[in-house]
Amino acid sequence: MAEPNKPENKINIVKKVFDRSGRSEKVSPLFTYFKNPQKSVLKKIKRTPDLKSGPRRLMASIDFSGCAVRMLQLTQDLKGGMEVSLMDEEIFTEDASKTPAIKNKQALEKLVSRNPSVGPQVIVGLPAKETQTFNFTFPAMSEEELREAVRWKIKQIRPFDIDSEKVKHVILRWDTAHTAPLHGGQQRVTVVCVSTENLTEKTEILREVGLKPSSIHASPVMLVHSRYTGNFTSASEEVVLWLDLGSDESVLIVEKKGVVYFLRNLSVTGKQLTRQVSQVCHVDESKAEELKKQYGLDYWSPQLQNRLITEEEKAQKPEAAVSLALLSLLENLVIDIEHSFKFFSYQVTQSQIPKFDRVILTGAASYVNKLEQFLADRLGAPVEKFNPFFSVRAQDSLRAKRPRFSEDILSFSSSLGLALYQTPEGSKLHNFTSADRKKRGPNPLIQKLKQRPKFATAFAVASCVMLTAPQIAVMTHYKSQADKAAQKVKDARAELKRRQSSQLDLADQEKRFLEKKMALEDQIALFKKSRRDRGSFAGLLLKLSSLLPDEIWVTKLSYAEKKMILVGATSKNEHMVGFLENLKKPDEFSDVSFNYTKRNSNSSVFSFEVLMNVK
Which of 136, 140, 122 has the alpha carbon at shortest distance from 216? Predict the structure, then answer.
């Protein structure tokens, strides 16, 4: 029998009296006092999940997509195994008047109201269309140099057409087998970017419904993490092609050893397949969705590609019409996959990864019958339909709520990958909210100040004086310098104003002098012209007098604008002929014409008029 005075027995008695299931009352130190407490042992105890008290719920995952918001929560049992305890989704309604942010908020409100036990902290996933992925190749460098090189690349590329300060990014490092041998030790990385505005928007939406993001990730990258609970195992050197066919978004992922090498959106989605069936079969989209789930590619066979489906077959066999509708888009999907992988192989890896070994099919649209056989035939590689819950149990209540549980889980692959972030393997994955965050231990000085508040106050006052005194002195000095400079500026402006006024007066005087100068120049030019005109006219008169016979005399002479009119008289008209001939000879006159001649009344004298131009 154990001795009753031992401290261990006392503790057992206290535990028996005060221990209550699900309660956290503190036990009085009266019953737990030891003479020599084992403080050194207590410090070494690590904080681990207390599984002895029963299964515990992990943080729920919130997966945003273009057509729905999905919620999934795991429960960890006593042995550390995982069980899906919550799996719910809210699909958006077709309402163009609502923005994506409003749709996300309304969907979250409905999910939280249906699942009040969730929260407050959650793990958040963003769809591929809200992120941008790049592949970079760098020389061998340190981790810090690599981060700086990636930041410089992002600054040059400007994802989302915004500045690099408004972009968060995470770096996914490749397997060394495809980095170290390349060109003397170069290394390749995959960088996933998201805008800080998007992160803020999602955080605000979650806050408004009472949730807080513990971490934020890119859902396609976290989808790959669900491989550890899925129904397949891959070899270490196997290159896996993930094909996530969603209702609103389809993504192609190249993965090796759990690391994402390449990520790209595809053009074919589940909604497009449904619309194609609706058009070919002439039914509405709800009926087309049923036909797609019912028949899928049941009518397809590898030999079907060598012949066409006739109209008679379409009319008699609905599965033939559905297969024809799906094949027209799935052929485009195969081409898109092949071109995307060729770009990755040739441009990104320089043909170091020439082929993929396996295709993993998942997503809401991957439940189409015989889709994996069709893709395997076209792509020339084995295709497996993914089951993310292969090694994770699901509560019976969840299976009862979902008659098509095996199909529904394909939509929750990314949600499960997000929830698995809480596992030891998942904690090493990327996280946008802590991409640039560094872990720091507690500051000893701060801890000491917290223990001595009076000393902390005095220290704060002294620090404030020490920090502000130099700043005040510098501020006083620069204020004095600024006042002097301001006075100099004021004096300079006054002097400038005075000089500008003086310059205006001088300009007015100069203007008046120029006007006087121009007036004098005009007068001088007029005077010179009059003198020149007088000299030339006198020469004309002398020339005219030399040509005038004695029998003819001029009684009137008019001159204006190089035209001259002579009016005169003569005793005989015969003298006018010689006079006109004389006028035509000199160079000074031209166009000489005889206007008229007449006898004066009661007289033997004849009057005449002659016109001519003066050169």
Answer: 122
